[in-house]
């Protein structure tokens, strides 16, 4: 499996509009962060983790020509606002694209993108989206690739993380229930959010993310969903062994122990 980080920033992205801090004005491209999203290639299929407002730019940069399914962690704007940009892929693939998410997430998608589900504007194009409900702890197949969803606490929200083979994908977490932690052992790669150094009520900070990594002991932990408080080189130099900041465009091998079927 191959994982491409399309974006590693928080909801405002980096640079932040109107900000002139050292990170926002940094010439280092590692400090330029689009909204968090990733592309997983497994068994000849292409799965997208979330579809934020930067999806068009991300898809062009990564030369994405096909998306077989989208795995949604939750319905905050920085994770679903780009769903309309799936339209060109609908045309190219001549099919609807399945969205996998919790009942709550899919309900919000249906509300915010109501035009996609009602042909109320004759002659206008709209994204073709197939809503596929998933439940925590119940494995499912996304375009033939086996995935296991689990609960993630995001402040007062319960959102979704995913395990696919030896890859764990968690973003926007402020806590992981014990049963979810149990599902994240034995990983080659753990993707985990780390907002900043200071504590935050709805996201892990760097210390909390490192503590989770120390408990789970994956071979490699890659941190995402970062604000402009984190300067790439300086933070990486201070992180423990096996933990590092991801960056936009990073490509990693995520193991090959997944189950794929037609």
What does this structure look like?
With 262 residues, the chain is α/β, with parallel strands linked by helices. The chain is built from 7 helices and 14 strands. The strands form 2 sheets. Strands 6-5-4-3-2-1-14 form a 7-stranded mixed sheet. The model has no long low-confidence stretch (mean pLDDT 95).
Which helices and strands appear, and what pairs or packs with what?
Layout lengths: L1 E6 L29 E6 L2 E5 L5 H7 L7 E3 L5 H4 L6 H7 L3 E5 L1 H10 L16 E5 L6 E3 L2 E10 L2 E8 L2 E3 L8 H5 L6 E5 L12 H11 L3 E5 L7 H7 L4 E3 L5 E3 L9
Parallel strand pairs: 3-4, 4-5, 5-6, 10-11, 11-12, 12-13
Antiparallel strand pairs: 1-2, 1-14, 2-3, 7-8, 8-9, 9-10
In short:
It contains 7 helices and 14 strands. With 262 residues, the chain is of the alpha/beta class.
Strand order of the largest sheet: 6-5-4-3-2-1-14
How many individual helices? Answer: 7
- Biggest beta sheet summary: 7 strands, mixed
Strand content: 25-35%
Q: What's the helical proportion of residues?
A: 10-25%
Order of helices and strands: EEEHEHHEHEEEEEHEHEHEE
Oligomeric state as shown: single chain
Quote the distance from N terminus to C terminus. 17 Å
Alpha carbon gyration radius: 18 Å
Class of secondary structure makeup:
alpha/beta
The number of distinct β-strands equals: 14
Key structural traits:
alpha/beta, 14 strands, 262 residues, 7 helices, 7-stranded mixed β-sheet
């Amino acid at each position: 499996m191959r994982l491409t980080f399309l974006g590693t920033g928080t909801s405002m992205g980096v640079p932040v509009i109107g900000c002139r801090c050292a990170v926002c004005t940094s010439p280092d491209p590692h400090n330029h962060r689009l909204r968090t999203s990733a592309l997983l290639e497994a068994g000849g299929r292409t799965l997208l983790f979330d579809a934020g407002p930067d999806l068009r730019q991300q898809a062009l940069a990564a030369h994405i020509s096909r998306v077989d399914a989208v795995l949604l962690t939750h319905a905050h704007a920085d994770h679903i606002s780009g769903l309309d940009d799936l339209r060109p892929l609908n045309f190219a693939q001549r099919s609807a694209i399945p969205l996998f998410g919790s009942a709550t997430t899919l309900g919000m998608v249906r509300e915010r993108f109501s035009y996609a589900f009602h042909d109320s504007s004759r002659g206008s194009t709209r994204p073709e989206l197939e809503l596929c409900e998933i439940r925590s702890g119940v494995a499912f197949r996304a375009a033939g690739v086996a995935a296991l969803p689990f609960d993630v606490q995001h402040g007062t929200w319960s959102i979704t993380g995913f395990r696919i083979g030896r890859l764990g994908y968690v973003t926007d977490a402020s806590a992981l229930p014990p049963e979810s932690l149990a599902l994240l052992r034995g990983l080659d790669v753990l993707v985990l959010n780390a907002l900043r150094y200071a504590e935050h009520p709805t996201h892990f900070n760097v210390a909390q993310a490192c503590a989770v990594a120390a408990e789970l002991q994956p071979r490699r932990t890659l941190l995402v969903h970062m604000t402009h408080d984190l300067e790439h080189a300086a933070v990486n130099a201070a992180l423990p062994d096996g933990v590092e900041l991801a960056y936009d465009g990073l490509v990693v091998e995520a193991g090959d122990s997944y189950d794929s079927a037609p």
